[in-house]
């Protein structure tokens, strides 16, 4: 867990990440708030707060007496939302900075392509066009 952010947000984000990565399938059951609380050694109310964020967002739903399940279509909905956030948080600031530096759209596109195909994305090493080293 990251100490700089509220735990309930991290729990919600972890469940979302697991759904996006396919580790938790749509319509499958997710851990209970008590399981989250035991695993992270936190108050069950904190786990419930994170889970309720996902319920409010329509990512999971509760079946009374059975547990919580991933909504059908949740993965695509999460990916769409994250793409929108990526545009706002990363792409627009990148374009604004490139504009300030006089970098043309073609140059920026070339820089991105070069970075994507010649490093592992984290800038730690070269990769081939298939993304393998």
- Helix and strand pattern: HEHHEEHH
Number of helices: 5
| Overall outline | elongated
Percent of residues in helices comes to: 55-70%
- Report the sheet-strand fraction: 5-15%
Low-confidence stretches: none
The strands making up the biggest β-sheet line up spatially as 1-3-2
The largest sheet is: 3 strands, antiparallel
Question: Termini, distance in Å?
Answer: 30 Å
E-strand count: 3
Secondary structure class reads mainly alpha
Mean pLDDT over all positions: 89
Description:
This protein is mainly alpha-helical and 133 residues long. It contains five helices and three strands; from the N terminus they run αβααββαα. It has helices at residues 7-20, 33-40, 44-56, 74-100, 105-118, and strands spanning 29-30, 60-63, 67-70. A three-stranded antiparallel sheet has the order 1-3-2. β2 (60-63) and β3 (67-70) form a beta hairpin. α1 packs across α3 (44-56) and α2 packs across α3 (44-56). The chain is elongated. The protein starts with 6 loop residues before the first helix and ends in a 15-residue tail after the last helix. The model has no long low-confidence stretch (mean pLDDT 89).
